[in-house]
Design brief:
This protein has helices at about 10-15, 20-50, 60-110, 130, 135-175, 180-195, 205-215, 220-225, 230, 240-255, 260-275, 330-345, 375-380, 385-400, 415-425, 475-480, 530-535, and strands spanning about 115, 120-125, 280-290, 300-305, 315-320, 350-360, 410-415, 435-440, 460-465, 490, 495, 505. It is of the alpha/beta class. It has 2 domains: about 10-185, Ferritin (Up-down Bundle); about 260-545, Rossmann fold. The chain has an 8-stranded mixed beta sheet. Strands 1-2 form a two-stranded antiparallel ribbon. Strands 10-11 form a two-stranded antiparallel ribbon. It starts with 11 loop residues before the first helix and ends in a 13-residue tail after the last helix.
C-alpha cells in the first residue's frame, strides 16, 4: 500500500542511512567556535577597559575605531556561530528521533515478513492456503501491514517536517534574523560601548569634535553612524547630514522597540516621511527619549528645514511652555518652516536654514495661569531655562564649527519661556555666538538691559503683541507681596519691550484678546511679525518695521 507521506522530500532509505550524529558533532564545533569568540570579545573589552585613558590623542582614537570594527566582526561571528551550533544540535535531535522511529518500524516489518519500498509502500508475502480460508488471519495480516505503513509514513513525515523547519531557520540565520535577541543586545551594547569610547570626551568643545570627525576615514565615520547613532546624532560638532542619518537610524530603533514616548517618535517619523523630497530638505539634528515618562520631562528633538552647514542664514528657534516632543513635528515644526519661508522671501539669493530646538525640558502648560491662579512652580522658576541655556549655547557653537565656507548669519530666536532660555544663553560666558537675538512673547530674561545678552543692544529684537498677557504679567515678587506693580517688570525681570531695556521693538499684530495672541508671532496671522523676523534672519535690519518701546 502507498503511505500517506509518499510525497515527502526524504524517502525511507535516505532516512535510514542518515547520520544525525554528524550534525550533532558539527553543532558542537560551532558552539565551541562561538565560545572562543565570546571569550576573545570579553577579553578585548576587559583589556580596553583597564587601559582607560592611558593612551589618548588622534592615533588612539583611530586605533579604538579600528579595534571596534574588528570587534563588530567578532561579535557577528560569536552570535552566528552560537545560533548555528544550536540549530545543528536541534536538527540532529529531530532527525535522530525520526530515524529511530523508522528503524523500529522496519525491524517490525522484517519480523512480519513485510517488504518496505523507498516511497513507504509496505507489502506482505503471499498468504498460505490456510490463511486464504481464514478471514481473521487475513484481517490480522492487513492490520499489521497498515500499522507498519503508518509508522513508516509518520517517521518519514516527521523527518521531512524537520528538514523544512531547519531549512527555514537556516534562511533566517543567513538573513541575520535568527540570533538570540537577549544575547545580541548584550554583545552589541558591549561593542557600542567600545566604539563610543573612541569619541572625544563629553567636555570637548564642538570645534574639537568637528576636527576629529573630519579627520576620520569615511569607513570609520560610517561605523560610528551605524553602531552608535544615538551618540553621533546628538553630538554637537558633527556635521548636520551625518547627524540626520544617525538620528533616523536611532528613530527607527525607538519605533521598533516601542519605546516610551512613541507618540512623539511616530509624529517625527510621519513628518520626515511627509517632507521627503521637498524643498527645503528636512534634517533630524537631535533625538532622544531622555526623561520621557519621568515626571514632566519632554524628550529631545531638533528639526531643521534646510542644511545649516551650507546655509548663509540660520535661525534657531526655541519654543516655550507646554512644548512636547511631538510638537516639533507639528505646530513648532510648522513655525520653524514659516520662519524659513519668511527669510527666503526676504532674500531668495541666500540659502536659509531654520530649525526648531527642543534640547531642554520646558515647563508644562500652566492651566489657570491667566485666570488668576498661580502657575506651577516649574513655570515660575527659571531653572529649566537656565539648564537649557547651556545646551543651547553648545548647540549653536556646533553649528558654527560644522559650517562650510564663510560664517553664516546666525539668529537666536526664543518664544515665551523659550525667550528666557535664549536670553539666559546670551548672558553665559561667551554668549550664544549669534549675530542677532529675537525675543517674542517674552516674560523677561533676567537681564536689566539688552546689552547684557551677549551682543550689542541694536542686535536684540523684541516682538510684543498688545493683547499678549504674557508680555504684561507682573513679576512674581510683586504679585506675591502685593507691592505696587512696576509697569516695566514681568515674571522674569524687566520688560524686554520697554524703551529702557534698549532693544529694537518691531511691529506685530495686536492679536485677539486673551491668551490666543501669545501664539501668533510665528504664524501668518501675526501681521508684520513673520515678515519682520524674516528680514532679521536674512540679515536685512533696514527692512524691519519698528515701533517705539513701551
Amino acid at each position: 500500500m502507498r503511505s500517506p507521506g509518499a510525497s515527502a522530500v526524504l524517502d525511507v532509505w535516505q532516512l535510514q542511512d542518515a547520520q544525525p550524529e554528524l550534525l550533532a558533532a558539527a553543532g558542537q564545533g560551532y558552539e565551541a567556535l562561538a565560545e572562543g569568540a565570546g571569550r576573545a570579545l570579553a577579553g578585548v573589552h576587559a583589556a580596553t577597559g583597564k587601559a582607560g585613558g592611558c593612551w589618548t590623542g588622534p592615533a588612539a582614537l583611530q586605533a579604538q575605531l579600528a579595534l571596534a570594527a574588528h570587534c563588530a566582526q567578532l561579535e557577528a561571528a560569536h552570535l552566528e556561530s552560537a545560533a548555528l551550533g544550536a540549530l545543528l544540535r536541534d536538527a540532529a535531535s529531530e532527525f535522530g528521533v525520526a530515524r529511530e522511529q523508522l528503524l523500529r518500524a522496519l525491524a517490525d516489518a522484517e519480523r512480519a515478513g513485510c517488504a518496505v519500498a523507498a516511497d513507504g509502500t509496505v507489502s506482505a508475502p503471499p498468504p498460505g492456503a490456510a490463511e486464504r480460508h481464514d478471514g481473521d488471519a487475513m484481517d490480522a495480516r492487513a492490520r499489521t501491514r497498515q500499522a507498519i505503513a503508518e509508522r513508516v509514513a509518520q517517521a518519514v513525515r516527521a523527518a521531512d517536517d524537520a528538514d523544512r523547519r531547519i531549512a527555514e531557520r537556516l534562511d533566517r540565520l543567513a538573513a541575520g534574523d535568527a540570533v538570540d535577541p537577549a544575547t545580541a543586545r548584550e554583545d552589541a551594547a558591549a561593542v557600542r560601548q567600545l566604539i563610543g569610547a573612541a569619541l572625544p570626551p563629553a567636555s570637548a568643545p564642538p570645534a574639537e569634535v568637528t576636527a576629529w570627525w573630519r579627520a576620520l576615514p569615511p569607513g570609520r565615520r560610517e561605523l560610528l553612524v551605524q553602531q552608535c547613532p544615538e551618540l553621533v546624532g546628538n553630538r554637537d560638532g558633527i556635521p548636520a547630514e551625518d547627524r540626520d542619518r544617525a538620528n533616523r537610524i536611532a528613530l527607527q530603533r525607538c519605533l521598533d522597540g516601542d519605546a516610551v514616548g512613541s507618540v512623539g517618535f511616530r509624529a517625527i517619523r510621519a513628518r520626515l516621511d511627509q517632507d521627503a523630497g521637498r524643498h527645503p530638505p528636512t534634517l533630524l539634528l537631535g533625538l532622544s527619549g531622555e526623561g520621557l515618562g519621568q515626571g514632566q520631562c519632554r524628550g529631545r528633538g531638533i528639526l531643521c528645514f534646510g542644511n545649516p552647514d551650507t546655509a548663509r542664514n540660520i535661525s534657531a528657534y526655541v519654543p516655550g511652555v507646554g512644548t512636547e516632543l511631538e510638537d516639533i513635528a507639528g505646530r513648532d515644526g510648522d513655525r520653524a518652516l514659516n520662519v524659513w519661508t519668511a527669510a527666503h522671501a526676504a532674500d531668495p539669493a541666500r540659502e536659509t536654514a531654520s530649525l526648531v530646538w527642543l534640547g531642554y525640558d520646558p515647563p508644562p502648560d500652566p492651566s489657570g495661569l491667566l485666570d488668576g491662579d498661580l502657575a506651577p512652580a516649574s513655570v515660575l522658576s527659571a531653572d529649566r531655562a537656565r539648564d537649557g541655556a547651556a545646551s543651547y549655547d553648545r548647540f549653536l557653537a556646533g553649528l558654527r564649527a560644522t559650517h562650510q565656507g564663510p560664517p553664516a548669519h546666525l539668529t537666536a530666536l526664543g518664544h515665551s519661556y523659550g525667550s528666557l532660555t535664549v536670553g539666559l544663553a546670551g548672558q553665559r560666558p561667551g554668549g550664544t555666538g549669534a549675530d542677532d537675538l529675537v525675543l517674542i512673547g517674552s516674560p523677561g530674561t533676567e537681564a536689566d538691559h539688552a546689552a547684557r545678552l551677549g551682543l550689542p543692544a541694536d542686535h536684540v529684537w523684541v516682538g510684543a503683541a498688545a493683547h499678549d498677557p504674557v508680555t504684561h504679567l507682573p513679576s512674581l515678587g510683586d504679585a506675591l507681596t502685593g507691592n505696587e506693580l512696576a509697569s516695566d517688570r514681568l515674571w522674569f525681570g524687566p520688560d524686554p519691550a520697554a524703551a529702557a531695556f534698549g532693544a529694537n521693538r518691531f511691529t506685530v499684530a495686536d492679536g485677539p484678546l486673551g491668551f490666543a495672541s501669545h501664539s501668533h508671532y510665528l504664524d501668518p496671522s501675526g501681521g508684520d511679525s513673520l515678515p519682520n523676523i524674516g528680514q532679521i534672519v536674512a540679515g536685512h535690519p533696514e527692512n524691519v518695521h519698528r515701533r517705539p518701546g513701551r
